[in-house]
C-alpha cells in the first residue's frame, strides 16, 4: 500500500505569445546506496533494505511504499518558438516506507514493486498527455500543472484499486493478474507505444 506526495515545480512564464515546443527527459537518476531516495530504474528494483521506516501495526497492510513523481523544467526562447524541456522523476522514499518483520519476504516485495511500477506508468502517461497538447504560450505552466494534478489523481485511483483487488497482495490470483497487466504496460512504455488508461485487469 503506497503513500503519495504531490510535488509541483513551477516554470517561468513567457513574455509574449509564441509557439510552444515541448520535449521530455527521464534522466534515470542513480540511486545512492546511502541516500534516502530510490529513483525508478528497471535495472534497480526495490529491495527489502529500502524499507527503513518503523512499521505501523494497524490496518491490514504488511508494508507501505512511499512513491511519487515530479517534474522540473527549463525554457528557452528561440525566435518565435518557446522551447520547454521537462525532466521527469519517479522515486521511492526509504524513510517513509516500511515493512512488518513477518512480511519481509519476496511476495511482499513483488507487491510493493508493482506500486512503484504503477507510479512510473502514470508519469509516462502524464508525459504522453503533455506532448499531445497544443500549449498556450501565455499560460502553458497552468495547463501543465493541471495535467499533473489530473495524473496524480489517476495514480491515486489505480493504486487504491490495485490494493483493493489484491487485498494488498494477499489474493494470489488477483496479484498474478495485476503483475501480468503491469508487465504489458511496461513493455508498451519501453517500446515507445501509447499507454492506455490504466484499468483493473480483474
Strand content: 15-25%
Gyration radius over CA: 18 Å
The parts where pLDDT drops under 50 for at least 5 residues are 5-11
Largest sheet: 6 strands, mixed
* Overall pLDDT: 89
Number of strands: 6
Provide the structure class: alpha/beta
Gap between N and C termini:
18 Å
H/E topology pattern? EEEEEEHHH
Task: Provide the number of structural domains.
Answer: 1
Organism: Chitinophaga parva
Protein name: DUF922 domain-containing protein
Brief summary of the model shown:
This protein has helices at 106-132, 140-166, 172-190, and strands spanning 2-3, 19-25, 37-39, 63-78, 81-93, 98-99. The protein is an alpha/beta fold.
Explain this structure.
The chain is of the alpha/beta class and 202 residues long. It has one domain (2-190). 36% of the residues lie in helices and 21% in strands. The chain contains 3 helices and 6 strands, in the order E-E-E-E-E-E-H-H-H. It has helices spanning 106-132, 140-166, 172-190, and strands at residues 2-3, 19-25, 37-39, 63-78, 81-93, 98-99. Strands 1, 2, 3, 4, 5 and 6 form a 6-stranded mixed sheet that branches. Helix 1 runs parallel beside helix 3 (172-190). It is elongated and about 60 Å long. The model is unreliable at 5-11 (pLDDT under 50).
Amino acid at each position: 500500500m503506497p503513500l503519495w506526495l504531490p510535488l509541483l515545480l513551477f516554470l517561468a512564464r513567457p513574455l509574449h505569445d509564441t509557439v510552444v515546443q515541448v520535449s521530455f527527459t527521464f534522466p534515470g537518476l542513480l540511486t545512492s546506496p546511502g541516500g534516502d531516495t530510490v529513483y525508478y530504474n528497471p535495472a534497480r528494483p526495490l529491495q527489502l533494505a529500502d524499507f527503513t521506516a518503523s512499521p505501523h501495526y494497524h490496518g491490514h497492510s504488511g508494508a507501505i511504499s512511499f512513491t511519487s513523481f515530479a517534474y522540473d523544467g527549463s525554457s528557452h526562447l528561440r525566435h518565435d518558438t518557446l522551447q520547454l524541456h521537462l525532466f521527469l522523476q519517479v522515486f521511492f522514499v526509504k524513510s517513509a516506507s516500511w515493512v512488518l518483520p513477518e512480511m519481509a519476504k519476496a511476495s511482499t516485495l513483488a507487491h510493493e514493486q508493482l506500486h512503484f511500477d504503477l507510479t512510473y506508468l502514470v508519469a509516462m502517461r502524464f508525459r504522453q498527455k503533455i506532448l499531445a497538447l497544443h500549449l498556450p504560450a501565455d499560460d502553458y505552466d497552468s495547463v501543465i500543472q493541471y495535467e499533473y494534478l489530473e495524473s496524480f489523481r489517476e495514480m491515486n485511483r489505480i493504486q487504491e484499486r490495485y490494493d483493493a483487488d489484491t487485498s494488498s497482495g494477499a489474493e494470489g490470483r488477483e496479484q498474478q493478474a495485476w503483475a501480468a497487466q503491469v508487465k504489458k504496460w511496461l513493455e508498451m512504455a519501453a517500446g515507445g507505444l501509447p499507454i492506455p488508461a490504466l484499468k483493473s485487469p480483474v
